Description:
This is DUF3553 domain-containing protein. This protein is mainly beta. The chain contains no helices and 5 strands.
Amino acid sequence: xxxxxxxxxxxxxxxxxxxxxxxxxxxxxxxxxxxxxxxxxxxxxxxxxxxxxxxxxxx
Length: 59
């Protein structure tokens, strides 16, 4: 079964559910379970998609 993280594409906006202080993030890449996100207050972060379920932000 695919998770939301598997469907994330560059340009999509997300939030990290356990790090609200990081602010809004823009997906940069999603390759082999590694999602790179550029967050407003934390900069570029590489996350393993099986460790965190990012929340999609609709604008």
